[in-house]
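I hope you will forgive my troubling you with a question about protein structure. The full record is reproduced below for your convenience:

——
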Amino acid sequence: MNVLPQQELRADDAALAASVASGDPAAFELLMRRHNRRLYRLARATLRDDADAEDALQETYLRAIKAIGGFRGESSLATWLSRLLLHECLDRLRREGRRRDIAQMVSTDADEHVEHESMNDPSPHGTPHDLAERAEVRALLERKLDELPEAFRTVFVLRGVEEMDVSEVAQCLGIPEATVRSRFFRARSLLRGLLARDFDLAERDVFAFGGAHCDRVVADVLRRLERP
């Protein structure tokens, strides 16, 4: 993946924002396509519902097109949009009475500094069987992510899935960089624990033998014993 130098990225963001603010529909479409995946993942991690995440994303873009004239390039456009999205998600959580741990996500407390491990996306190529297995693993991981508190889940998606750098995640969430590192490490530890629990349960059913399978083997053996 090619990464633009920071100065070029800021200049590109400023030009795109200016085009959107001037009413250029092509520029607005480019903005949405460029940031759709990251913002959707952030919304999905916060709201834990596909439909709610998509609605929040759409509302964020509607807010963005009204407010983008005030974009000054002090942060990246991705960070600016992420903050708008988080505000939209927080409003929804408040309205629906599902705040739970959300206050921790936007707190400014400093956790202990913990080193993080990098994560790489798997290759999109493979046989149909490989792709089906990968889809099952992804679905399992998404279910386990939904079990994490918002504070850890959101950091994990931004840092681990979207591979944003620590400083950018800190800007998006308004927390210290040390907190990003520790929450990312903690999120991975919790995920490993949840996945290990499922695998431990699955181990007991590996090569399961019973029911019709058992009946068939017994019947075959008895039938063979009856032969001359």
